């Protein structure tokens, strides 16, 4: 299924790019130009691999929209020269970053595979080698001379997921990510199996568009039993706040007491856009299904359907600079743009 491909490896930071100094025990970033020395197995791949690194690798906890644009810029600059891209990234915020990149890059018809590891490359029991090698293989897959995967994916511990469907679920296990609302795009075992029927279909005639404006005047508000009016009042008074991803219970349910509905209405009247997403890692918002979400629906709160919080934030940052009317924003938000929702 694969022919020779040219792959660009982009190292942004994270555990995968670390090696242990055996004298001090401290972790330090290694030079990715020496990648073949650290992972000689890469020589067995038929693909040609080039590397580029952030001048100063960053911990993924420090990731922000400026870095998302920087990663997109590297891809845009090299887009015509490579068949696929592998982004090495810290696992903690990988789902946020990879989801955002999917929105930034419109008409993508090449693979971009995000990966990382729980243990450094130099560690005896590392998961870094398998994650990296398989990510390169996936980015290089071709059928009849054309790339097989044409979207942003996230590969970790034998599974490739659509990136904007993922959430980090475990800080200690090698199986750190999950995608409960969309099946794995590919699975690595004795054979590399790709579920081609659920892959994004590319339109190869359309030119790549890179959206370089993101607006981060947004926040996530997680509801909990006992949340009080004063707290929400303070939040909606935040200067410059443009959007709230509201994490509700179950299938989009929230407190339906008058004080809560009044504050949501006040926020919407101030022009703050509110998207309803579920706190559950699987399942979908179905506003109006229960009485506790009917009033939110009537007010014009946007349904996030089965989108993840990570993708919900990314989609909001992406759409806000377009300066759409609230009605148009709602219509577009509730439409799947990159396979992020059903």
TrEMBL record:
Record-linked SUPFAM superfamilies: Glutaminase/Asparaginase
Instruction: Write down the Pfam families for this protein, in alphabetical order.
Output: Asparaginase (PF00710), Asparaginase_C (PF17763)
GO molecular function terms attached to this record: asparaginase activity
Where would I find the L-asparaginase N-terminal domain in this sequence? 6-197
Which keywords describe this protein according to UniProt?
Hydrolase
Asked whether the UniProt record includes Hydrolase among its keywords, one would answer yes
Tell me the ranges covered by the Asparaginase/glutaminase C-terminal domain, including all copies.
Answer: 217-331
Return one Gene Ontology term, BP aspect. Answer: aspartate family amino acid metabolic process
Entry's InterPro entries? AsnA_fam, Asp/glu_Ase-like_sf, Asparaginase/glutaminase-like, Asparaginase/glutaminase_AS1, Asparaginase_C, L-asparaginase_C, L-asparaginase_I, L-asparaginase_N
Documented EC number(s):
3.5.1.1
> Catalytic residues?
15, 15 (o-isoaspartyl threonine intermediate)
Question: SMART domains, from UniProt?
Answer: Asparaginase (SM00870)
Q: Which family does it belong to?
A: Belongs to the asparaginase 1 family.
Name of the protein: asparaginase
Q: What is the lineage of its organism?
A: Bacteria, Pseudomonadati, Bacteroidota, Flavobacteriia, Flavobacteriales
């Amino acid at each position: 299924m694969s022919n020779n491909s040219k792959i660009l490896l982009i190292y942004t930071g994270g555990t995968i790019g670390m090696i242990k100094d055996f004298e001090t025990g401290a972790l330090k970033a290694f030079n990715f130009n020496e990648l073949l020395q650290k992972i000689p197995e890469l020589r067995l791949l038929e693909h040609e691999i080039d590397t580029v690194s952030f001048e100063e690798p960053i911990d993924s906890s420090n990731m922000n929209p400026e870095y998302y644009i920087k990663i997109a810029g590297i891809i845009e600059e090299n887009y015509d020269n490579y068949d696929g891209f592998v982004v090495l990234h810290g696992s903690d915020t990988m789902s946020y970053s990879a989801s955002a990149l999917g929105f930034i890059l419109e008409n993508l018809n090449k693979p971009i595979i995000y990966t990382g590891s729980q243990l450094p490359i130099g560690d005896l029991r590392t998961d870094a080698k398998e994650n990296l090698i398989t990510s390169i293989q996936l980015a290089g897959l071709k059928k009849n001379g054309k790339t097989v995967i044409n979207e942003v994916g996230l590969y970790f511990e034998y599974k490739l997921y659509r990136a904007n469907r993922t959430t980090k679920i475990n800080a200690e296990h090698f199986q750190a990510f999950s995608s409960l609302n969309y099946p794995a795009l590919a699975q690595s075992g004795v054979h590399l199996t790709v579920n081609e029927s659920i892959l994004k279909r590319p339109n190869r005639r359309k030119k790549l568009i890179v959206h370089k404006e993101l607006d981060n005047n947004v926040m996530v508000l997680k509801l909990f039993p006992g949340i009080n009016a004063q707290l929400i009042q303070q939040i909606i008074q935040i200067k410059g706040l443009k959007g709230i991803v509201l994490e509700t219970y179950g299938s989009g349910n929230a407190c339906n007491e008058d004080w809560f509905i009044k504050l949501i209405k006040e926020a919407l009247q101030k022009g703050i856009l509110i998207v309803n997403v579920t706190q559950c890692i699987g399942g979908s918002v179905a506003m109006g299904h229960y009485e506790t979400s009917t009033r939110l629906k009537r007010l014009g709160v946007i349904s996030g359907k089965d989108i993840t919080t990570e993708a919900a934030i990314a989609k909001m940052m992406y759409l806000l600079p377009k300066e759409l009317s609230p009605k148009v924003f709602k219509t577009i938000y509730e439409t799947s743009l990159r396979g992020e929702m059903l």
